[in-house]
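Lecture 7 notes: from sequence to structure.

We start with a single chain of 889 residues. Read the sequence below before looking at the structure.
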Amino acid sequence: MNQMFQGWAVVADHLQQQADVQDQLAHEKGEEATHLNPGQRASLRAVASRILRNGVVIADEVGMGKTRIAVEVARCVIKSGGRVAILVPPGLGYQWQAELRDGEVNDVPAILRSLSAYLAAWADNQQPWFAKQAVMVSHAFTNWRLGENAAVWRWALVPELYARWRDMTDHRLPRGYHDNATLAKGWTCSAAAKSIVAALPTNRKHPLRRLLDDFVNVQWPRPLDAAEYAKYGALRPWLERGVGIGLGTFDLIITDEAHKSRGTESGLSRLLERVIVSSDTARRLALTATPVELDVSQWHSTLSRLGLDAATLAQVQEVTTQYADAVKRVRQSWRSSPEARAAYKIAAARFQDTLSPYLLRRDKREDPDVRCFHDHSGLPINAYRKETEISVNTADLSTAWRKAICAAESLSVVTRQSSDPVAKRLRLTLGNGHGIAALLDQIKRADDDHRQEQFDGATAITEETEETGSAVDVKRQERAEWWLNAISQAFLQGDDSLFDHPAIKEAVHAIERETQQGEKVLVFGRFTRPLRALVDLLNAREMLRRVQNKEPWPQAKVHGERDGDAENSEWLAVRAAHRQLMSPLRLDTLDETLRIHYEHERQRREQFRERLISEIERGWQGNSLGARFKAIFHAFSRSVDANIFGATAEQSSLALVARAMMELLESTDAEAPEYASTFCQLIEAVCDRDDADDDDNEIDAAEATGLWGEIEARLRGEYTRTQGGFARLMYGGTSPESRRMIQLAFNRAKSFPRVLVAQSLVGREGLNLHKSCRIVLLLHPEWNPGVVEQQIGRVDRVDSRWSNELKRALNAGTPADQLPRIEVRPVVFRGTYDEHNWKVLRERWDNLRSQLHGDIISPEFANVNPEHQELFDEISNASPDFSPNRSNT
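Now the structure, written as tokens:
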């Protein structure tokens, strides 16, 4: 624990030097040879100038490479003898490991997710956490479920640390500690406590020693009561502090997605304030594309993640509120009021001056491709994104669906005092700003949506208590029940009716128009049942289309009973697709037709399997893909030779890997190096960092064989699915390895899935889905513009499909009005609350842009009124700018 951090001046020098090295490399060999682009290099210099005084929020727009900047700062801190803690949302450890590896920050252990993983460092005689230079910790790490019946090892660290510290300072153990039968069950905590106390710095003013000095204020034997460690137990904070002491002190704390969990009692806040122990000179680096989402007050919570003092945060609150008021006023009267324009200039300057020491933000206006689009198209800078609504016209719907929509509109009024649980859920749906499509889907809500509702705030609906019993209340309840029954009429056919859901049908038509042009589509929604219905219907329609055209389809039969109505039967979707497409295929012979087509492809599959191993082996030659991957490949090869259980050709591990490789390769005629690199990418996606100590280290044959068994099981679960995979669903129940494999496949232009349907809570942050997709469809448009920005940001990233298509289009001399764009397609019910929802979302989006981009007056509006161009330019030039290219001071 006696790390010798050389100080922030040394870190700043390293950051400046790295930016200079990258500049020189760009000058000599071109930008394509650099690891950091010009904007990222400018950010390094800006961080260097600020970090001498305080922490920094890097609030670059989605997809501009914030993580790469943070990794470089971490590397420079470690190079200067410091320690780094990286706080990461659940599910993003995989991508952080890749970024750290690319940035040459090595030996970072697997993300810390649980108490058992924390204690394993001492149970298995590994290097203790406090001795590691960098530690990754999940935002959800402190979500410990403890109580009076909790196992001893889950809480015994507190009494053990108490005892060992008393022994060191007072030379005696607490009364009754010796031979305590309860503590004997938590022996790992005893080993951890001894290790921690023995390694403490000798400096009595060290933060860790100060924390342990406070431990003696706990009255013994209170630490032996398991109930005290429950969520709101008196000793829960002491357990969190004890775990933090075992992690050691950190000089740099990086918080990814720093806008999440803003509450003071959230898991991330507890992690920052109670668990992670800062050195006396520590700095915090916060990463977020959306430091504010809905309200200027959120600047306070975002900047508080830097550990700023109360006086500074109060000033931030005052200045941001003043700026928001000035923006509102100047928008209303920018052409007619010199006073409003003058007040705006003063507020904007103060806003920029106050936040600049702590905030850096690059936005898409600095992106070379966005600027290139702007220059060649003559359109406003943000017009590279095109928003086109997918309209559901209620007049064209069946009587049942028209009634359902009218009833949903009515519920927004009559459920205000209804005590019916479903009615309350619908009311909360509208109260959270979600439109009619989302409200209708609440009727078919699944248990899988509990976490989504928690995030939305639609929780605890059964705990609401409302006075009922009066005649007025009874009438309200009766009206609510009548409207609920009217909505339910549209779903009388059970889950089959979801395939005729108006929003789903329109979404299907819009998606198929794009996929038939060679595009991939990313879909976001909130509720899993309609999302599943969308996926099933897309797969069924594509299957019928391909079978009719005698094209390959990776499925030998339709699963489930053909005449049954079981929820998991594919026939439900197939019958709906057959009816919608008016397909000439006979359903009674469809299984036989599928089987014949599948058999016709057998020879191609066999030929691919026969040469797969030799192609991968040839691909290893002359490359540096890593010894670990080679060891796993040899374990796979041995399993093929052994085939212990005598699996048939179609069921063997060779067939399993071959299917996965065929789906991922752009062409089965690919060169050998591509076979090898694709195999490595597949293994990297399916592996968890917990599977091995270090991806780059050699592993012996026995370890590789054991690891291959786990990998094969995961691959079998992913690639023996019953459906064809044209469309895939990613939701809360999708395993981490499946998410990574879906991500890998979706980023390849010619592989399945062509459509990825993601539950909003799962897919909107952290995932890179931009390599082969530029179209985002919003099945349930959100109320929060920050959420929508994150969703679109999955495809709007550096080196995206859109940016590469733009370069090809410009090289080909494509006319300005035909240049490719990133397309955003919300599904909107015309003439309903949905239109109001989308209108308010756009207004909030404008407010967000005024806070983050300085876009005060719509450029489109200014272009319509050229006589006011001078006033427009005056306001634009006064707008706040937090770009590192503006100033590094």
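The chain has 36 helices and 13 strands. Keep this in mind for problem set 3.
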